[in-house]
Amino acid sequence: MYRSAIIPLVFALLFTSIKCAQVNHGSLDEAKVYDYVIVGGGVAGLVLAARLSESENKTVVLLEAGPDGGLNKDINTPAFAGVLQGSQFSWNFTSTPQPTLNGAVPSLAQGHCLGGGSAINVMAYCRGASSVFDEWAEISGNDGLRWENLLTEFEQSSVLEIPPDLPYTIIANKSVYGQGPVMVSYETNLTNFDPTFANTFKNDPQYPAKLVDLTDGTGIGQQVGGPHSIRLSNGTRSYALPAYGYQMAGRNNAQIMHGVWASKINFDNKTAVSVTYTDKADNSTHTVKGKEIIISAGALNTPKLLMLSGVGPKDHLTDLGIPIVQDSPQIGSNLYDHHSAVVMVQVPEDIFTLVQQSNASVFDPILQEYQANGTGPLGRPGGSSFATERIPDDILKSFGVNVTFHTNLPKDRPHVLYQYATGAFQPNPNNLNVVSTFVALIQPEASGYMRLNSTDYRANPLIYSNYFGSAADMAIEVYAYNRLRSLMQSDAMKPVIVSEVYPGKNVTTEAELKTSLYNSARSFHHPAGTVSLGKALDPDFRLKGLNGIRVIDSSAIPVMPTCHLQASVYALAEHAAKLIKDQL
Ligand SMILES: Cc1cc2nc3c(=O)[nH]c(=O)nc-3n(C[C@H](O)[C@H](O)[C@H](O)COP(=O)(O)OP(=O)(O)OC[C@H]3O[C@@H](n4cnc5c(N)ncnc54)[C@H](O)[C@@H]3O)c2cc1C
Questions:
Q1: What is the mean pLDDT of residues 265-282?
Q2: Is the omega angle on the peptide bond into residue 8 within 30 degrees of 0, that is, cis?
């Protein structure tokens, strides 16, 4: 909520400096056969559309269900990222009640607009442990996904911008960035909370966190002040729409449609030939033909669309009366995510949090600074530093459960990630000035799955997220949650913490703590793996057993990266685009 009518106007003026593209709601020629029809205008879809339409003799159509939020102030202003979930720009999915969480139903909101998740995410830019990408290559049989090879695409998709005279120390390996369209930067200034949070992990005698660059293949350590996918020149979000979508402005061979919801892929025997979609503007139904159909609808909507089209687990489709095109039992399974639990603390009033937006004396100068320079609290996402940690084998083994999966992970992989956000992740009825710290399990052993709820394409899918679903996953999260809580209660954090708000001082027993963990369990909104390379897909991202159809997005990811996902999806899609162009 913004306090005056002036503010939206001012933001609109600020963002008119962003180049606008011809991403309009045109119409398609239903008689024509386009070279590529891409479903989903998120991270992967926009990379693919931009790269494939570089070939002038190839026609590309991209269908996006959500709106164009290119000039929306909440999308463009990093600090407002939190208000986008639950808005018109998100699919407001929730998990089914989770038995592992005493029936809790965490949100699994996903991006629903041009830019997809990159338009509503929290902009952390990370790549994580290199061994993950080597494992992608082994599982998929595609050697281009090996870290040393995929680095080319990480570089191609990004550029690093470090503010001059940075008032804090970072380790930034500039050699792993190129001149790509996604602008990655560090913050010009940190909140008071940030250095204290970072130093608490750095100076912790048990596992001192080392300052590293988690974008150069390193998996374990600490990042301070970013990096984030934020444009340094004006402090606005750098995401797939401006980065890739606007490249297509003026290309006659590329057409981006928004507000069009794909409901079915049509097959001629085993060959995909067209996509049926509903134009939300007038609820009319259309079909667009393609020589090749590429599904990039994200890890929850991609398997949903395939199942609606008769591609998926035979028993499930038969139960719903959907004619089978291809029995693909793996589709919808292998759902991985990063899951976290929250310790929320009250902080002094001189630390800006989103709770203070309604306080004019605090907010007005902040707004003025942002409008003038693109700097200050509004130019950052509100959680700058994070640390990843590998728990030593002897501690894991002391849990008394089978921890073989976690002890056997390659040695560059962490188990957990600690971070914070300057806002309330738990109820905050007294409007206290709060920061939510959290710890996420980032190499989960257990996976979940998704299924259709109905044959109606408008119905949300059933998502069985299976958070902390193995005994070892749960034991690690409980251990790390305890550790986070005690670090937040330590003397080191005292200068920036007034009191613990959640779980709160009344929570003292292990049982109470577990209940607090269950009740605060959250998705990092990183679902992946539901149409995985090596399982449902061949090394070239083609659906096994079918022709003319590929899946290229987070669904294809066979193993979870050790930190935030967007950088990996940009690189994966760049790689796939190159692969398709090389096959021409
Ligand atoms: C709230 C949130 C916070 C996140 N925070 C971070 C972060 O800080 N750092 C980070 O690295 N990653 C973060 N992520 C994750 C990252 O944004 C995603 O991993 C990434 O966007 C996935 O890319 P994708 O191409 O697979 O799917 P998406 O980017 O989700 O794109 C899929 C697109 O397909 C469209 N679509 C779906 N179904 C249909 C259909 N039937 N017809 C037409 N269009 C359809 C959707 O509307 C969407 O635009 C976050 C994600 C969310 C949602």
A1: 97
A2: no
What pLDDT score does 17 carry? 34
Contact (Cβ atoms closer than 8 angstroms) between residue 108 and residue 300 = yes
Active-site choice (228, 339, 406, 526): 526
Q: Is 393 left (phi over 0), alpha (psi -120 to 50) or beta?
A: alpha
pLDDT of 334 above 60: yes
Contact assessment for residue 371 and residue 550, using Cβ atoms and an 8 Å cutoff = no
CA gap 279, 39 in Å, rounded: 14
Task: Provide the mean pLDDT of the chain.
Answer: 93
Distance CA 357, CA 367 (A): 10
The distance in angstroms from the start CA to the end CA of the chain is 50
What is the whole-number distance in angstroms between the Cα of residue 511 and the centre of ligand 1? 35
Query: 326 in helix, strand or coil?
Result: strand
Centroid of ligand 1 to alpha carbon of 294 (angstroms):
16
Judge whether 25 counts as a catalytic residue. Answer: no
Closest C-alpha among 132, 84, 82, 74 to residue 564 = 132
171-211 pLDDT, tens per residue? 999 999 999 999 999 998 888 899 999 999 999 988 899 99
Cα Rg of the chain, angstroms: 23
pLDDT at 433: 96
Q: Which three-class secondary structure state does DSSP give residue 468? A: coil
d(CA 408, CA 478): 20
Residue 338 among the catalytic residues: no
Cis peptide bond upstream of 414, omega within 30: no
